Amino acid sequence: MNVILRLGLALLLVGMCTGVSGAQTTDENQTRPEEPASRTVLTFGVVPQQAASKLARLWAPLLQRVSVLTGYQLEFRTAPDIPSFEQRLAAGEYDLAYMNPYHYTVFQQNPGYTAFGREKNKRIQGILVVRQDSPLQSIDDLAGTSVAFPAPAAFAASILPRAYLRQQGIAITPVYVSSHDSVYLNVARGFYPAGGGVLRTLAGIKPELRQQLRILWTTPAYTPHALAAHPRVPKSIRDV
Which CATH number fits domain 3-122+224-238: 3.20.20.140, 3.40.190.10, 1.10.287.1080, 2.60.120.260? Predict the structure, then answer.
């Protein structure tokens, strides 16, 4: 990967780790120089753990900053839900993508996405949440219940908790509700006794919703999400 793009992506990783928001980049966006017509456009797909509007508020300003630094125009993309995102990855719709570790193991093989970065000094942890007033006190209490998850292939929020429950012989009925935000809302409203998510997305929901929830169980820490490039991305951009 060339040095200029590496610099820009390093800034992107810093932004993801520190939670930079669109409000913090307003002045910079207003003073950006006019973009040349010949600028290379790269679509950047983000796994839809949260609502598209929330992802856009976080990612679009960061991608604009990276675009200014690198000379490549990075365009934010996502999908309505995680299964749709997986279909788009399989079809190679994104030039660059931010995906979970499970997605990377699958889509590295076909269509051939190659990782070029991960969140620095970060590990991902899945959680199971319940309402604050829930009588459930341990994961053993989930036996025989229906538990909300974002999607079957959501790594830390679904794959890891379901695998652990299976290993412990705790039978549940998984229900897939499309996103992390939807999981938290469904649990808070009492539609399901528990649901899977990750610490970062729980921290990102509205305080009044978060205060209605508590963490029942946390997974061990695992390798974080990857930034990966489709094989059609020019060699000068994607090669380390």
Answer: 3.40.190.10
